[in-house]
Amino acid sequence: MCGIVGYVGPREATEVLIEGLRRLEYRGYDSAGVAVMNGSGVQVRKAVGRLSALEKVLSGNGIHGGVGIGHTRWATHGVPNEVNSHPHISFDGKLSIIHNGIIENYRELKRELIEQGVTFKSDTDTEVVAHLIAKAFDGDLLHAVNAVLKRLRGAYAFAVCHNDQPDRIVATRMGSPLVIGLGDGENFIASDVPALLKYTRRVVFLEEGQLAEVTREGVKLFDSELKPVALKETTTSLTLDAAEKEGYEHFMLKEIHEQPHALAETIRGRIEGERVDLSELNLDAETLKGVNRIALLACGTSLYSAMVGKYLLERFTRIPTETWSASEFRYADPVIDPGMLVIAVSQSGETADTLEALRIVKAGGARTIAICNVMGSSIPRTVDGTLYTRAGPEIGVASTKAYTTQLAGFVLLAVGIGRMLGRTDEATEAKIVEGLRQLPGQTKALLDEDIVAVKRCAKRYKDVFNFMYIGRHFNYPTAMEGALKLKEISYIHAEGYAGGEMKHGPLALVEGTFPTIAIAPQGRTREKLISNVQEIKARKGVVVMLSTHGDEEARELADYLIEIPACEEELSPILAVIPLQLLAYYTATQLGRDVDKPRNLAKSVTVE
Ligand code: M6R
For a substitution probing ligand 1, which of 399, 400, 405, 594 has the most ligand atoms within 8 Å of its CB? Predict the structure, then answer.
């Protein structure tokens, strides 16, 4: 996946492009490039590595002009080098293009172009599209782009410029996001809203298959038959501040500390007195009675929130619920029926596997809901209803506030549906609602505490090669998520296991210096997990206990003790994961890792 940005207006295009790319670096940071038109042709600058490398190139060898496109890359086809970086230029030197996505049939198209005598410079799928559009160009870029789209299979957001129409950018999307920013005598395009915020908050989200012709004077939209389409302008509520670090060393740390506010936002307006209010989802008891099973679709951290979601939904609604890694679901020949309620979980709303799995269930007639953070993204636009988590932009690649707000979203959903079906009683609902109300304050208290044991652990164990995380029931997914956070940003191997599974194999790993993090807050499986810890201690393993304040047994057993506030066990995964996020963060910073942009990863995985 990649970030794309475009500008048409009176400013120096490179300045706008670099500003936009900085906000999009979370989408990819292998290499970056810009192309600028200035009436005498297109000029291109590229650099391998972070955006700062491109800035260095531009400071020594700048380009001037008011129309330009820029790209930050996460490699899919071809290694990250200068030649494979975008923008790509057509065989005649006249057309420049940037692309986010994958063209699945690029090999056959490339073969065809080579037979026609076109020479390729890069290994990318994008270069194929540059040559195809250049060949189709007969004086009208919009027509040429549209003609070529009909030949492409895969996912894309493109922005294209041509020397013979140097006043415009033509942009389009299918399966990859693209938003247009409307200015005064200037206009913008970008993969995501933060790239536009310095200049405008007036945005138009391009729909699948639409094309946009962007000039200084205005923006025209067309459907795939090139019939004009009305612009649906909205004003984004996102602010630039929300996309900045605000004094924190890393976005990840800032986002960890934003959790009290993010949780309060997720809950806001959705609890009323002692009740959960899900009216925004237009669900009614009649429809819900027809639901015979629930399937949860997600990837990565969102998948772990879905694992907690399964326990919550089954507890409060008694509807059988299954959790699927969306990338597995797509190819598992899943059984889909109209009685199925599918919930897709995604921070970005753009994860390709989740989106595709969703399309499959929609085609099968299932009812769909999303739990999502990014308003107007592809997943919410695909489903019947969305519970937005309102966590604000999450920039750090490692997901933190998106996870805890997804968990809060699942609690709301499970209790709300449970009550509508008459399977959750009023007293239980009132108890959980009160717990939700306390969550932002408890989260803040936990973060303010400056958890000493976490920092000590990070310092002591930063050089080990392996970590084990164990938990049970609601906190089994917490173990998975804690392990994912650690491996993702510190590059230390970590595994999350169900505590009861230790004796079925992993216990063999335990010896004198092997650290296990045992997540054992109050709840019905606490005692069972304590027994698993005893088994580890008996083999001289090191144990970091994560338990509820005042648990003396845990204190006695622990080599390191991390305490969280007392809460309902259904809410404990929200509090328990916070020290684990911090443990991963401090371990990674001790090791000097690039916390916000870990190697080989990108924030949104918009390719399969
Ligand atoms: O945007 P999504 O929630 O759909 O993203 C899913 C995963 O790619 C994401 O959670 C990933 O695992 C995170 N980097 C984990 O911290």
Answer: 399
